[in-house]
Amino acid sequence: MTGFSDYAQTLRPRIEQALANAVPTTVDSRLAEAMGYALSGGGKRIRPLLVLASYRALTGNHDHPALDNIVCAVEAIHAYSLVHDDLPAMDDDELRRGQPTCHIAFDEALAILAGDALQTLAFETLSQADSLTAEAKLALIQTLAQAAGAQGMVLGQAIDLAAVDGTLTLTQLERMHRCKTGALIDASVAMGAIAADADAPSRRALENYSRAIGLAFQVQDDILDVTADTATLGKTQGADAARNKPTYVSLLGLEAAREHAHTLLAQALDALAKLPGDTQPLRLIAQYVVERER
Amino acid sequence: MTGFSDYAQTLRPRIEQALANAVPTTVDSRLAEAMGYALSGGGKRIRPLLVLASYRALTGNHDHPALDNIVCAVEAIHAYSLVHDDLPAMDDDELRRGQPTCHIAFDEALAILAGDALQTLAFETLSQADSLTAEAKLALIQTLAQAAGAQGMVLGQAIDLAAVDGTLTLTQLERMHRCKTGALIDASVAMGAIAADADAPSRRALENYSRAIGLAFQVQDDILDVTADTATLGKTQGADAARNKPTYVSLLGLEAAREHAHTLLAQALDALAKLPGDTQPLRLIAQYVVERER
Q1: If you count Cβ atoms within 10 Å of the first and of the last residue's Cβ in chain B, which end, N or C, has fewer?
Q2: ipTM for the complex?
Q3: Which of A141, A143, A146, A165 would you mutate first to test chain B, the one with the most B CBs within 10 A?
Q4: Between B107, B116, B150, which is nearest A35 by CB?
């Protein structure tokens, strides 16, 4: 394994297969199609990779069958949030990863419903992770719910929407991102640790890692929004700036934003030192988050 | 207890208090407001009453503290579905129970998010029903997820939307309603039975009860859509007919629809005969479902 791309490539068939199996086939075809479209929309699968890499950093492998349930659950939540976030009443985006967004490919009503059903699927999938104890399954459900709901991801989206044409301080911007994207990244890492039945010091180390890369991910997104072109990005370049949304770049300037991302990367790598398993995948993910070009 | 209204009145403070406690207070105020608005929007609280009455039909009381978690979970799912169903891209309703719908009282984006967060809250609340075993909590989560998702409520909404200006046979109409409203009514009753640790024959009897009243509820809704006036109904009278949606009345005619509702009522009451507890509340709810005027 020489780098992030190789690592991601190795795990991609497993992740895509798990996701393809997740949507029940007996469902009404249009709804199932829209759910499958949202779930199979490509993307880097950072959250699934974090689940697997977190487990590997604790155990040296990622063979546990419950990891497939966790991968599906976290990606279903992520996919639903993108579908709803792209709606005309929200960010009104027509392109996502170079493809028509769900409400363009289908229609608005079906996109709302597909998002709703993907959220349900996430919790159902965790409740069926039968290679784990009932207590562990409940811990997974609690962790995901707290990350996804009104104190996590959805709160972040609400703060983000309220901030259009408004102003946020750096502290407020960090809180928004910790909720909007950071909470689910934290949950991905934490859920890998739950599957591994990790001890408290390992969980704390992983929390420090995930908090740092969660913010770094957003800082890099803001940098790419002003530096990458639309074709590379797969979404409209400058979209945040055009909406007058506060970003790390607008608040810090481009150079200081880049420095901030690298400081966070160093924090993430530091946190991995005491983990007992194979930490190389988590290291590769952290480097990728800060060095990616789209 | 002389009738449904008295029964509902007696339990209303408990139900409203449980719902008021459910929305976390540390949440961003606008998001929490919209969630609270959707959850406190009045209504008959049929699903919470079914949870409590089901437990009572098995045990003779409804004192178990986990019932409050179940009540909140089932009503949070119901409330989220109404908020999303009322959106312009879906049914485009501006009134719900005589009050502005969530996207009118707030805005569309916040209504989407509040609905999303209410769904998460449902699963989080069940995972915290700590007076139950981990196995029972998981059974609740599975039951609710199966009822709410792509094989239950959301599927029913997708079929319903696809049926506007289309045609459905009576069989297709029943399937749509079994999913759209029946699944969550079934789940309410089943979740009361899970809290009571009911045996298999009791669960089957309760399933027969809930399937009958679930359909009866919808038949009566269709009857009221053509017979009640807008003020009594609290929503626009004739709305379904105006959208050319198939209904029991359009398929069967008014008189046959009324007969169908009473046949279903008789089936529901029959199913209660073998239950060991106090079945009077379930009886009152069944009668109310068919005899209500709004």
Answers
A1: N
A2: 0.94
A3: A141
A4: B150
